[in-house]
Amino acid sequence: MTEDAPKKLFIKTYGCQMNVYDSERMAEALGAKGYVTTEVAEEADMVLLNTCHIREKAAEKVYSDLGRLRPLKQAKPDLKIGVAGCVAQAEGEEILRRMPLVDLVVGPQSYHRLPEMVEAKGKVIDTDFPEEDKFDHLPERKALRGPTAFLTVQEGCDKFCAFCVVPYTRGAEVSRPVPRLLAEARDLVSRGVREITLLGQNVNGYHGEGEGGAWGLGRLIREMAGIEGLERLRYTTSHPNDMDDDLIAAHGEVPQLMPYLHLPVQSGSDRILKAMNRKHTAEEYLRLIERIRAARPDILLSSDFIVAFPGETDRDFEDTMDLIREVRFGAAFSFKYSARPGTPAAEKPELPAELADARLHALQALITEQQHAAQKAMVGRQVGVLYEKAGRLPGQMVGKSDHLHAVHVQDPTAKVGELVQVRIVEAGPNSLRGERLQP
Ligand code: 5AD
Ligand code: SF4
């Protein structure tokens, strides 16, 4: 039953964009039970940590954050504390054992059951992979929205890269059916959204049921581009081996599909790629990039890299640096290898921490150089900018360019949600400055 005074829900989201989407949907599910979200943990009736298990640091952060909630729980014994997401999935009851202040543990495939779980007495735990699609059991989204939104189209992963927990925590690849996604996209647009980022752990492996059989991501994107009022589409995150011809062609043919692609390669060494079970070579990745650039010459590329994977030699690392020099990325995320329990790579001896630090440092320096070069290259160019919020200076708006750069524009009469044409006039270290072109 919904009570008169709204209860307050504080959600902290760790890790990836899928978790950002999941947190939004959990907030909506709990909204049906009378919860409204708050930014202030101290005033919450429920604190939910939506966790990430991908690297040890991310997972351990959850335990230290839970420790920090102790005084709050002591002062407010009715406070409910929940752990959701991939740490919940991977560690289950261990969380209740290690942290008795936790009331509920819910895995990423079960959060549609949250509304029942919050009403249960005592401790509850649900880390099933249920048959039903959780998205079908969530309440409809009604509130007006900002101009950008995520939409999960695919979950899980069958790739089993040797370092990665995702296939274990998120389970096998599942694609949501086309009609549901189109309905959800239309609904988002009707509530003010102008840019949708399609999400999946292996989003370009999408193969959801549509008219006439299974559709690939390229076809889904072409269909979504037909939704009136939907100005921009993006997708993340992809595996090189799932970039099919139709999707590559879509980059050249669908104006709504923005010229930015996150395509993780992890390493530039064939030996390490093989040990990682990535199932492609550095050369194959480079040829793929050529084809993508042929379809969309101004596309900005980003990637993920892992340094100091077990067995990585100086030569292997240099191969990664060479690949980066050859591709010229506009952005990248890079990580020191972190051994994850239950993954094949965790059986192998780790490299010394100082070596990992030094390689990460060198790789990040190169990426930063390329990122700045890509930002400088935007100066003088005309790009679209979708305003997402007001800037810190009076009359200033902040939005994202087509290439996903943050852009500041002096535009005192503009509103959030406007998509405007801008000339880039300056490149700072973290953002660009643009001048609006009339009208
Ligand atoms: N150690 C370090 N980085 C990892 N990633 C995934 N698993 C690990 C791990 N065990 C990185 C990969 C992936 C990104 C989401 O996180 O680069 O693409
Ligand atoms: Fe993890 Fe590899 Fe699947 Fe990406 S493709 S989620 S890195 S197993």
From TrEMBL:
Belongs to the methylthiotransferase family. MiaB subfamily. Its cofactor is [4Fe-4S] cluster. Residues 143-376 form the Radical SAM core domain. Residues 376-438 form the TRAM domain. [4Fe-4S] cluster 1 binds at C16, C52, C86. The keyword Metal-binding applies. The keyword Iron-sulfur applies. Pfam families: Radical_SAM, TRAM, UPF0004. It comes from Gemmobacter lanyuensis. Its EC number is 2.8.4.3. This is tRNA-2-methylthio-N(6)-dimethylallyladenosine synthase. Monomer. Keywords: 4Fe-4S, Cytoplasm, Iron, Iron-sulfur, Metal-binding, S-adenosyl-L-methionine, Transferase, tRNA processing. It catalyses: N(6)-dimethylallyladenosine(37) in tRNA + (sulfur carrier)-SH + AH2 + S-adenosyl-L-methionine = 2-thio-N(6)-dimethylallyladenosine(37) in tRNA + (sulfur carrier)-H + 5'-deoxyadenosine + L-methionine + A + H(+); 2-thio-N(6)-dimethylallyladenosine(37) in tRNA + S-adenosyl-L-methionine = 2-methylsulfanyl-N(6)-dimethylallyladenosine(37) in tRNA + S-adenosyl-L-homocysteine + H(+); N(6)-dimethylallyladenosine(37) in tRNA + (sulfur carrier)-SH + AH2 + 2 S-adenosyl-L-methionine = 2-methylsulfanyl-N(6)-dimethylallyladenosine(37) in tRNA + (sulfur carrier)-H + 5'-deoxyadenosine + L-methionine + A + S-adenosyl-L-homocysteine + 2 H(+). [4Fe-4S] cluster 2 binds at C157, C161, C164. InterPro entries: Elp3/MiaA/NifB-like_rSAM, Methylthiotransferase, Methylthiotransferase_CS, Methylthiotransferase_N, Methylthiotransferase_N_sf, MiaB_methiolase, rSAM, rSAM_horseshoe.
